[in-house]
């Protein structure tokens, strides 16, 4: 569950936090496109360096590094797959970097954008209010689920449940006393939220207002310019230089 740390908003007074979520999301999409289109290690390292710079500006390097623990299992799978099916160690390293770049493309966005601002950005883009609300609530549930998982995990260990011992099947079986209470608690919260929405007549009026309106600033226009330059670089590297 540690990978959820990469999607948990941290309130800080940084340059990245003050930017409009729409400009940050645009750059995140461009960075994600790089990780999908290219497999060249030079391009991936360059994009990863840019992502680390953005995460550093957001002062969220600690959370980003902690979230990488959740990718260790998938990185191991990548190396095993490469070794079993005729791949090379170098290709395993490249694919692992590609996975990190892909996961980091959106993590800096979620680490520096409040769920409320993300909801306002989706509303300004004319997304249906039901979809916007569902997405914002899903983001809000991430830290709640993570904290509850950690609490249940610690409680079961204090009762003598050995989660680290045994083979793969044993470890999966030992997770049941954690996952079942977590699932029950999540469903209970869902019903409570549904009742609260019904009491407040959610969706009764098609016209909705917001006390805070999003507005582009100089930094947002600069970020859009960087996104446009990087998008042009994708076309140039892929079509004219033929990089894979």
Shape: flat
- What is the total number of structural domains? 2
Which segments are poorly predicted (pLDDT under 50) over 5 or more consecutive residues? none
The amount of helix comes to over 70%
Taking Cα atoms only, what radius of gyration do you get, to the nearest Å?
21 Å
Sheet bearing the most strands, described? none
Structural class from helices and strands? mainly alpha
Number of helices: 10
Give helix and strand order, one letter per element, not per position: HHHHHHHHHH
Question: In words, what does this structure look like?
Answer:
By secondary structure, the chain is mostly helical. The chain folds into two domains: 1-113 and 214-244, no CATH class; 124-205, no CATH class. It is built from ten helices and no strands. It has helices spanning 21-37, 41-57, 61-67, 72-84, 89-112, 115-124, 129-158, 168-174, 176-199, 218-240. It is flat, with a radius of gyration of 21 Å. It starts with 20 loop residues before the first helix and ends with a helix. The mean pLDDT is 84.
């Amino acid at each position: 569950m540690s990978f959820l740390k990469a999607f948990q908003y941290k309130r800080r007074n940084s340059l990245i936090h003050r930017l409009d979520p729409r400009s940050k999301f645009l750059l995140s999409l461009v960075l994600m496109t790089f990780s999908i289109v290219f497999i060249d290690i030079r391009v991936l390292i360059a994009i990863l360096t840019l992502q680390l710079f953005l995460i550093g500006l957001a002062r969220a390097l600690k959370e980003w590094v902690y979230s990488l623990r959740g990718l260790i299992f998938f990185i191991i799978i990548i190396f095993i797959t490469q070794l079993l099916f005729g791949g090379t160690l170098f290709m395993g390293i490249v694919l692992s970097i590609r996975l990190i770049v892909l996961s980091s493309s959106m993590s800096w966005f979620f680490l520096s954008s409040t769920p409320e601002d993300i909801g306002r950005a989706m509303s300004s883009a004319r997304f249906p209010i039901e979809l916007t609300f569902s997405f914002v609530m899903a983001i809000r549930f991430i830290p709640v689920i993570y904290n509850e998982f950690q609490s249940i995990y610690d409680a079961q260990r204090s009762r003598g449940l050995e989660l680290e011992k045994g083979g793969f099947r044993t470890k999966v079986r030992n997770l049941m006393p954690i996952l079942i209470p977590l699932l029950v608690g999540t469903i209970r919260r869902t019903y409570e939220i549904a009742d609260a929405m019904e009491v407040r007549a959610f969706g009764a009026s098609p016209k909705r207002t917001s006390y805070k309106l999003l507005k582009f600033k100089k930094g947002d226009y600069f970020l859009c310019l960087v996104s446009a330059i990087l998008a042009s670089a994708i076309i140039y590297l892929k079509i004219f230089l033929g990089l894979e």
